[in-house]
Amino acid sequence: MSEQAIQEAPTLAPADYKSAIKPVWCPGCGDFAVVNALGKALASMKLRPEDVAVVSGIGCSSRIPAYTSCYGFHGVHGRSLAIATGLKIARPDLTVVVTGGDGDGYSIGGNHFLHACRRNTDMTYIVMDNRVYGMTKGQPSPTTEPDWDSKLTPQGSGLREFQPIVIALASGANFIARAFTGDPNNLADIIVQAVQNPGFSFVEVLSPCVTYRPEQRNWKKQVGRDAFEPTSDAAEAAMRVLRSDPLSLGVIYKGDRAPYDPRAAAAAQPVTAIEKRFCV
Question: What's the CA gap between 262 and 280, in Å, rounded?
Answer without folding.
Answer: 28
